[in-house]
Amino acid sequence: MAKERILVVDDEEDILELVRFHLTREGYQLALASSGEEALKKAGRETFDLVVLDLMLPGLDGLEVAKALKSDAKTKTLPIIMLTAKGEDADIVTGLEIGADDYITKPFSPRVLTARVKAVLRRRSRAAVENTKVITVHELEIDPGRRSVTAGGAALDLTFTEFQLLCVLARRPGWVFTRSQIVDAVRGSDYPVTDRSVDVQVVGLRKKLGSYGSYIETVRGVGYRFRETP
Fold this sequence. Notes:
Arc Repressor Mutant, subunit A, 42% helix, single chain, five-stranded parallel beta sheet
């Protein structure tokens, strides 16, 4: 049976009960919060393996909660699944920019939610034990084990998704990756994401890389690659 601890945040009691029922039946340990403020307090006091977070919350909304979690050293790498009634591309992109790992719209299938939870936790577990060799390309040093990146000796602050994206490209310099291949490598093949979302992540990563952002090349009509030569 699964032993991972999951924090579920939603202001609708029936949604909390529905999620609690199905995930505890799978063996997960659940903690519930009905507001963003309560969620941050619990995340600060306890250790979780995943957060299922509603976007539309009273007071501190889900996006603000996600930003707070990603800016805290303790919860920075904590996976987040957005659970919300909003389903527009703009909302999905916003969630991805903040660092959400998946996005499920209401009304939702409990079976789909359970499958997504398992997939996110499986990817997190796999990422923790594989590909730990330090990657050095040009003046970039990427340490998957420590989840750290330095460019020209300066440390960079990347989101989980930006870090994964950089690792995917840097491990195979010169290799062209399509957007769908990038999604499969970073999120898993079950992740519903648009081409625009990948582009947004690349733009954000290039900005943080500064002058080293030019190492990531756009291959028109195909996708992206990491330059073999500086």
